[in-house]
Amino acid sequence: MGATFRDSLNWLHTWTGIVVSVLLFAVFWTGTICVFDREIDRWMIPSTRLVHSGEPVLIDGLREEALRLAPPAAPWAIVMPNPREPFIWIGYRAATGIERKLFDPATLAPLAPAESWAATRFFFPFHYTLHIKAWDIGMWLVGFAGMAMLALCVSGVIIHRRLFADFFTLRRSRQPQRFLLDLHNTSGVLGFVFHFVMAFSGVTILASIYFPSGVWAAFDGGRAGYVQETYDVYSRPRLGQPGGPLASLDAMVATAREAWGGLGPGIVRVFHHGDANAYVEVRPSIEAEVAMRSDPFFFDAATGGVLYRTSIRPTTQIQQFLTGLHFVQFRHWTLRWVYFGLGLLGCLLIATGLLFWLESRRKAHAAAGLSGVRIVEGLAAGGTAGLIAATLAFFVANRLLPPGASFLGGARYELEIWIFFAAWIASFAWGWLAPRRAWIDLCRAAAALAVAAVLLNIATTGDHPVRSLIEGKWAVAGMDIVMLVGAALAALTAHRLQRRRAQSSIDKLAHQGGVSP
Amino acid sequence: MARETSSSAPVGAGRVVLRVLAIVVGGYVASAALVAAAVASLRLAGVVSSDAFTLCSILGFLVYLLLALWAAVERRLPLLVASLVLLTVGGAGVAATAALIGRP
User: Fold this and answer.
1) What is the predicted ipTM?
2) A32, A384, A24: which is closest to A203 by C-alpha?
């Protein structure tokens, strides 16, 4: 679309960036915080702030409870504890959706219910569906953003004239435009491989959604056929005759554990319970290796005999490796922090790109009477700083709402989500109403909310960072410390922006004073 | 990067719309047709369905990326549109033919 190859890619980079930036930032931000999704869960669901013992857990004692909870004929599952999720839960399909009941793995005593979707049920699905389920629109939008990110990565590198030199260039110029571009280039170059790999692995996870043409050509049964053939899933139909009582689940787990070379189970699922054809699936834990392995064992529910062992084809293992690379469920704390840091760098990359677009057009648009800058200014403030403030409002709401709270028919977890969206919408509105001040105000709001979240956590649970550290509640301590550091950074940013604003109005006054006698 | 070049480019609104459609829709539809053609052909050649799909869909995203980038830089718009249409129709044709042979 330009005179030269490079101009065309510049055009592509600029306009793709400006169109998808807010969506892309939302996906990157939720993805980044979901690196620590289980840790956020521990913070938001205090009853699960247990310390993982590492001992193998026996679950036969939960069989009766599960049979009592799950409606007849519906499948149910026991999810096993691990260091990041140090509790057991029974999941079953109820009229209202999937219900979860939590248990202490040491005593099998029930724990207080979650009453929050926290990160694994709110931010994680938001990351790839935006919580828009109709016709998979959310997934398609995120997929579009992922492809746009790939195009932005490639075009960004090509239009960048002095890639290597700029790697070492960060001019702390007083001119915001220059500084923003340097920051955009540096974060883009530093995180290039990570951002490209994340965008690419992200879209491949949902390949069966994005390429229905390929699914049609490959599998006779559509998407169900895809899942069945690719992941070698065993199933057998209900027989309609009553079956024997459920055999020992612990014995099945032991059989699977031995075959997996000592690897523990992640999840135990029971299908058609009570029926003569009832069967049990035991899936391995996914924290031992990068690839998201899924080679479960299937047992007869009444006899405990092995019915089937799934074998995953090498090609599918490539897919599982890409998925695992993206999901970062493997146990490696250093890498987890690197993912978090590079994710934040991606957020910085997107935000600085957006702001550079604004700064480089501000004067021209004002002169030409165009409204583009004003519209994007509100979008930028709400879509970046506003989303961060809304996330923190979500945490604060979690600590403020009492157990069992409900309002206008919304359960406690829904109230948290309403507050998140209300805060986010309000920050967009503020971005449009007060564009020159919105950034300062949103940074201040974020700083205040982060400090409030930490204080409210101390007030409601007594877990101050020092106590969390001493008691080994790393997730809670880490969450509090990250929020305090974030609050300091947000306050510093607000202070800097305020000073620059004051400086520029002084400059303007001096300039006017010089011109008019 | 700092310069804004798009305003100086001699283009009309219609051509911009066509270009954007070529990048977003044309590139996708062509790559989806090529994925279907490759999967159906591999399956006909005896490759296991899940292997064919996994491999071709992963490569399909790269094909879409390349087509989208090409659609942004190719100056001859008629050539671009014709190529994308040809890839789509050709891919769909191959996929349908292979499926007909494979599934009588």
Assistant:
1) 0.90
2) A24
